[in-house]
Design brief:
With 257 residues, the protein is an alpha/beta fold. It has seven helices and eleven strands. The strands form two sheets. It has a six-stranded mixed β-sheet with strand order 6-9-8-7-10-11, with helices on both faces. A five-stranded mixed β-sheet has the order 3-2-1-4-5, with helices on both faces.
């Protein structure tokens, strides 16, 4: 019975979008996306209403949205906490730990959950493409940032006189025959080439490169064409890795209370 379930909620509040995940024990049973600028209150309330949510974790980079989301959770009598990196067990072996994005911390937790006995590389493909190396002992070791396909397309259009903006996608052939398909081929296959080299270079910094697991995540991993090409480069494609990681953080923080 639904009424007997106890669910966990994780909310990833960005500048334009709220991503939410509902978990029953360790299983992700539902996801939801809503605008965060401004917050789509009716949509969020409709998603949360009458669900037996026991605990919630908020990860946010949007202070204005926080107040609205908190009010909705409180109205639904849902207990919540905010992600506090100072309370986490994950060791951030970088020079500026306070600058590391919460999504990358969550991805590290997601990688540790998916492959607990392996070091891992997480490639998150979105507005930017990030690559992160995580040691199985619970250490975030560092990573890379590269512009995503949309940023590349926008930069080429804005900083040249004659090149148009094109929707980034895989063209029918890597051999472009028009300006549009030249751009699409270069952006698409250049992105794949960058990802392949990022993985290769991060592997070289690892103690045991041969046992590393590669995970791809991010909004672009819902693209079927990209998924097909990524399969050659990675061990796992998980669009919801960030939500999985946030849930692992929720479990860790609520155990301390």
């Amino acid at each position: 019975m639904v009424g007997q379930m106890k669910l966990d909620l994780v909310l990833d509040i960005g500048n334009s979008l709220i991503k939410a995940g509902l978990f029953e024990e360790a299983k992700l049973i539902g996801t939801f996306f809503a605008a965060s600028h401004p917050v789509s209150e009716e949509e969020l309330l409709r998603y949360l209403k009458e669900k037996p949510i026991q605990n919630a974790l908020i990860s946010s980079v949007n202070a204005k949205a926080d107040d609205v989301v908190k009010a909705i959770l409180e109205a639904q009598k849902i207990s919540y906490i905010f992600l506090d990196r100072n309370k986490l067990k994950l060791m951030l072996d970088v020079d500026e730990p306070e600058q590391l994005g919460a999504d990358r911390i969550a991805n590290a937790y997601g990688a540790l959950a998916r492959f607990p006995i392996n070091d891992a590389i997480v490639i998150d493909i979105g507005t930017a493409i990030t690559g992160d190396l995580i040691a199985k002992e619970g250490h975030y070791l560092g990573g890379m940032i590269y512009p995503g396909a949309h940023l590349c397309a926008k930069a080429l259009a804005e900083y040249t006189d004659k090149l148009p903006f094109v929707a980034p996608k895989r063209p029918s052939s890597p051999l472009g025959k028009t300006t549009e398909t030249h751009l699409q081929a270069g952006i698409y296959y250049g992105q794949l080439g960058a990802i392949e080299r990022m993985i290769a270079e991060l592997k070289l910094t690892a103690i045991s490169p041969g046992s590393i697991k590669i995970i791809a995540t991010g909004g672009a991993t819902r693209n079927e064409e990209l998924i097909e090409d990524l399969k050659e480069l990675v061990d796992l494609i998980d669009p919801h890795l960030t939500l999985v990681g946030l849930h692992e953080i929720l479990i860790e923080l609520t155990k301390k209370e």
